[in-house]
Amino acid sequence: MGKAAHDDMLDGGLLVLKNNVTKMVACTSEPTTYAEATDLVGATPAGYALADATLAATDMLITDKIDVTKVGRKLTVAEMADEAVDATGTAAHVALVDVLNEKLLYVTTCTQQELTLGNTVTFPSWTISIGNPA
């Protein structure tokens, strides 16, 4: 018996992000709570946040994900350029948060980069993929 998943099912998790994420945050470490993701490095209590960008649903696009091995769906987060750096440290993770409901919705690693208070940072475009069942 084969396996299959309708795009509506695959889109479900991606739609939670598209419809609820309002901020993308560069973090020094992997946050496990909303507070860790959004409180600045050096603040009391200290969090992991170095810089952030405000996101709207229009900054995220759900499309087909097709590569040589899989078919599925993906959410592409738009590039956010020239965002203010709010604390100094090494960015190692990116968190997507729902500010209204104070929820940490998604965390991933990123290419490590030194950020310095007062400078700017560009969050490049990136994707989150959900593949069809194998």
Describe this entry's structure for a reader.
The chain has 134 residues and is mostly beta strands. It has one domain (7-131). It is 14% helix and 47% strand. It is built from 2 helices and 9 strands, in the order αβαββββββββ. A hairpin with a 4-residue loop joins strand 6 and strand 7 (103-115). The model has no long low-confidence stretch (mean pLDDT 91).
List keywords for this structure.
134 residues; three-stranded antiparallel beta sheet
Strand content is: over 45%
Determine the mean pLDDT: 91
How many angstroms does the end-to-end distance come to?
Answer: 12 Å
Unreliable parts: none
Largest sheet: 4 strands, antiparallel
How many domains would you count in the coordinates?
Answer: 1
General shape: elongated
Q: What structural class do helix, strand and pairing data support?
A: mainly beta
Number of strands: 9
- Order of strands, main sheet, comes to 2-1-6-7
Our Rg estimate from Cα atoms comes to 16 Å
Total helical segments? 2
- The helix content, as a percent range, equals 10-25%
Order of helices and strands: HEHEEEEEEEE
